[in-house]
């Protein structure tokens, strides 16, 4: 089967399973904020419409200043990008032909970017599912033979984080071995402010932070992200960036989004409440989840650990099809190394949608 490489493609899944396109779908496969975009976004975009007649400022001074103020870093440490995805490919381009270290299962675009730019990739794996522990000793050991480590933090698809002490250990080893550490914080805005590694930039010139506004503000179609790193690194990345890579409407919107503290705070409150609800409901039904902090998680039947790998994959596919029949779209995990289809990834949605999911999962458990 040709599985879609990303979430958010319900029509493709429906066709794969030969299901009629009769009813609307609840999309749990893309990990976007269900509260967004913020209410003022349509009006802000309409007001800025005239800007499409001109080229954007190639240096994006205003949005970069806004990011620098919000993050408390000098503007020379900021690069505006066309989503977090462009940032990943810029880093791989800059380090082309070198050695990368990845810890799977993780976001698939790291590997794609590395392969595209001829990096030699070494793969490690999170240990002991459903805990998905970081193999800290192995990571530190392999940093000696790597030029860059990519870490999604929180990690996609597990939704898990490293302890600050583990991050510290990795950064110190990376410094010793002259290895860059890319911490992709695409989902960090969903967590309390102290979860971000921004304050560590001052002490760690090898640290490269990637950020995305598409997840928190539900604007994946607009594309917006940025890099925070040492000024020398930012210059290298900027040199490889396509001119006018970020469109004027997105660039103009950025300062308004960053200033919308009320929306961010509301999102964090919603996530904390729904996370508790989902963790307790899923465990009561007999499902197992990754110990997630982010707005998505891995889930499987609690008995799957005792099944053969083949049975676990078959059951996950049957569950995916069952949910699809109920109009609920989950993310398959066939394209995540280390999972190979044995889990499903689900986004945290509104209470009404989460309750519908729980009700369908309860029916599934009853009939299986
Ligand atoms: C960990 C991670 N980083 C980056 C991205 C890319 O996000 P963007 O839409 O900002 O390009 C994603 C998208 O799913 C992601 O999961």
TrEMBL record:
Pfam families from the UniProt entry: Aminotran_1_2 (PF00155)
GO biological process: cobalamin biosynthetic process
Entry's transmembrane regions: none
Keywords: Cobalamin biosynthesis, Lyase, Pyridoxal phosphate
SUPFAM superfamilies xref list: PLP-dependent transferases (SSF53383)
Residue ranges annotated for the Aminotransferase class I/classII large domain, each copy included: 24-361
One Gene Ontology MF term: threonine-phosphate decarboxylase activity
Name under which the protein is recorded: threonine-phosphate decarboxylase
Primary role: Decarboxylates L-threonine-O-3-phosphate to yield (R)-1-amino-2-propanol O-2-phosphate, the precursor for the linkage between the nucleotide loop and the corrin ring in cobalamin.
NCBIfam families per record: L_thr_O3P_dcar
CDD domains xref list: AAT_like
Catalytic activity field: O-phospho-L-threonine + H(+) = (R)-1-aminopropan-2-yl phosphate + CO2
PANTHER family, A to Z: HISTIDINOL-PHOSPHATE AMINOTRANSFERASE-RELATED, THREONINE-PHOSPHATE DECARBOXYLASE
InterPro entries found in the cross-reference section: Aminotransferase_I/II_large, CobD, PyrdxlP-dep_Trfase, PyrdxlP-dep_Trfase_major, PyrdxlP-dep_Trfase_small
Pathway stated in the Swiss-Prot or TrEMBL entry: Cofactor biosynthesis; adenosylcobalamin biosynthesis
Encoding gene per record: cobD
Cofactor(s) in the UniProt record: pyridoxal 5'-phosphate
EC numbers for this chain: 4.1.1.81
Gene3D superfamilies found in the cross-reference section: Aspartate Aminotransferase, domain 1, Type I PLP-dependent aspartate aminotransferase-like (Major domain)
EC top class, as a word: lyase
């Amino acid at each position: 089967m040709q599985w879609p490489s990303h979430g958010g493609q319900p029509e493709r899944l429906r066709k794969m399973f030969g299901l009629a396109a009769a009813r609307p779908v609840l999309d749990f496969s893309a990990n976007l904020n269900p509260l967004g975009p913020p209410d003022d976004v349509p009006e802000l975009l309409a007001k800025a419409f005239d800007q499409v007649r001109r080229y954007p400022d190639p240096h994006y001074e205003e949005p970069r200043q806004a990011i620098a103020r919000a993050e408390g870093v000098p503007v020379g440490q900021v690069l505006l990008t066309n989503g977090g995805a462009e940032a990943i490919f810029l880093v791989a381009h800059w380090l082309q032909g070198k050695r990368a270290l990845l810890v799977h299962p993780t976001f698939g675009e790291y590997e794609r970017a590395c392969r595209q730019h001829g990096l030699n990739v070494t793969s490690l794996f999170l240990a002991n599912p459903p805990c998905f522990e970081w193999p800290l000793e192995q990571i530190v050991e392999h940093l000696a033979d790597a030029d860059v480590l990519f870490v999604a933090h929180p990690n996609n698809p597990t939704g898990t984080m490293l302890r600050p002490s583990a991050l510290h250990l990795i950064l110190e080893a990376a410094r010793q071995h002259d290895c860059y550490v890319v911490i992709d914080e695409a989902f960090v805005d969903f967590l309390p402010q102290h979860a971000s590694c921004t304050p560590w930039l001052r002490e760690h010139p090898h640290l490269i932070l990637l950020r995305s506004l598409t997840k928190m503000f539900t604007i994946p179609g607009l594309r917006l992200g940025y890099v925070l790193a040492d000024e020398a690194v930012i210059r290298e990345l900027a040199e490889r960036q396509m001119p006018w890579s970020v469109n004027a409407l997105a660039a103009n919107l950025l300062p308004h989004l960053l200033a919308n503290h009320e929306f961010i705070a509301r999102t964090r409150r919603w996530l904390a409440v729904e996370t508790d609800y989902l963790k307790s409901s899923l465990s009561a039904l007999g499902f197992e989840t990754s110990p997630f902090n982010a707005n998505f998680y891995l889930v499987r039947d609690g008995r799957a650990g005792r099944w053969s790998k083949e049975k676990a994959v078959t059951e996950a596919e049957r569950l995916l099809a069952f949910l699809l029949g109920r109009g609920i779209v989950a993310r398959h995990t066939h394209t995540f190394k280390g999972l190979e289809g044995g889990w499903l990834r689900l986004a945290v949605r509104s209470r009404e949608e989460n309750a519908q999911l729980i009700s369908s999962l309860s029916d599934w458990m009853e009939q299986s």
